[in-house]
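hey so u asked for the seq, here:
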Amino acid sequence: QVQVVESGGGLVQAGGSLRLSCTASGLTRDDFPMGWFRQAPGKEREGVSCINGSGGRTYYGDSVKGRFTISRDNAKNTLYLQMNTLKPEDTAMYYCAVGGSIYYREDDVCRSSRIVAYWGQGTQVTVSS
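ran it, structure tokens below
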């Protein structure tokens, strides 16, 4: 049984930083593409950042480029999202996602949630102005 669990969300002032973590267990291998999505109230879920299986290629949405950094530690089955210079518009529920195939590109995973095989329960990030 696959379990995906996020942690690290919270309340932070604008300009501050947070680091999200996601641990995936029960996967058959450790090199599926993974990523972070977010959904704010009244808005559609959007791909924030995704990474390929080895960690060598990354994708970032335009709104977070230069501020967020995605990384992974396959030995620990853990995905990270370092979020710096946070803005109130970053406020959302953040979800960890595991792509359904090792052959999916990281940008494809972020652009199409339909190819995500597993989701975490989400962790809330709130940025106050």
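The first helix runs from residue 106 to 111. Residues 114 and 128 are 32 Å apart (CA to CA).
lmk if thats what u needed
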